[in-house]
Amino acid sequence: MGIVGLPNVGKSTLFKLLTDLNITIANYPFATIDPNVGVVPVPDDRLQKLATMSGTKKIIPAVVEFYDIAGLVKGASAGEGLGNQFLTHIRETDAIVEVLRCFPSDEIIHVEQGVDPVRDMDIINTELVLKDLDTVDKRITRLESEARADKNKAADVELVKKLRVVLDEGKMANTLPDDMLAEPAIKEMTLLTAKKMIYLLNGAPEHVSDELKAKIKEAGADYVIYDLHDTLDVDDLITKAYEILGLISYFTTGEEETRAWTIRKGAKAPEAAGEIHSDFEKKFIRAEVIATEKLLEAGGWKEAKQKGWIRTEGKEYTVVDGDVMVILHS
Length: 330
Ligand SMILES: Nc1nc2c(ncn2[C@@H]2O[C@H](COP(=O)(O)OP(=O)(O)O)[C@@H](O)[C@H]2O)c(=O)[nH]1
Ligand SMILES: [Mg+2]
Prior knowledge:
This protein has 330 residues and is of the alpha/beta class. A six-stranded mixed sheet has the order 2-4-1-5-6-7, sandwiched between helices. It folds into two domains: 2-244, Rossmann fold, CATH 3.40.50; 266-329, Beta-grasp domain (Ubiquitin-like (UB roll), Roll). It is globular. It has 13 helices and twelve strands. Bound molecules: guanosine-5'-diphosphate and magnesium ion (MG). Magnesium ion binds next to helix 1. Magnesium ion binds at residues 11-12.
């Protein structure tokens, strides 16, 4: 998740809050990649319950990486401020948390003079759209020249032009249907505004206007309201981030460790097994599966087995959030 917003809106304050949680997962395999990247555990109380049941020594949660990206300013798409460098960083992320300043304060300078999150949302989203228009125009030029030699490219030209109309109206690409965004000709461009977004409204609830909330809903996005100066608990944001990334967790549990494994929603059992080890995907035979609640009710794997509650699932099984699994492979 990339943290995006104007300067002085609370991005680094949010990053600090998130990364203070790092301590609990200090021994995570990829703990430090970059000082601007925080590896944040996804809150999930099922893990602790499973660990207690199994007498586990170590708990390993699912994680989301948050990236504190330098502040964006008006004109970034044309190279203002950190300009293109900033936009490249956003491109590398899977989704965006856009921080909007709603809190009033005389001491903290607002780059655009005066607190107005509706205006700020327009400034940021306009920069993202302008950058995408630039990308799209370049692509259309290229596709048109390719289409002269290869008739099959004509459909791609039409598709990208359709997208261009939407951007030209100032709308974000993520307002388009998912299946259109999944078309290779569009997906390849990794457009900034095709990414899913959550808005973090930084301020007390009374500082957040109905107009702003309506505008976000209209954009098809979700928001959380935190006064980052008074907040210690950002669980809701992390959970929502995991959700919009289209991710779910399944678990393995035993004496050594109880662990959450991250998979995309809709993943079949072999792909899920591949998260543990790539060999498990290739050599997958079957999985023994039970829902967390059911396993906790039984009180243990052995007990669940005796009750006949452990199912055997094959290669076509679509893993469900909260499944506890044992993978059998050759
Ligand atoms: N009063 C108030 N100040 C805040 C809040 N969030 C951030 N700030 C302050 O605003 C300034 C800019 O915050 P920072 O996180 O560095 O902004 P960034 O430029 O977006 O990374 C700092 O002095 C923060 O302490 C808030 O919710 N209320
Ligand atoms: Mg900052």
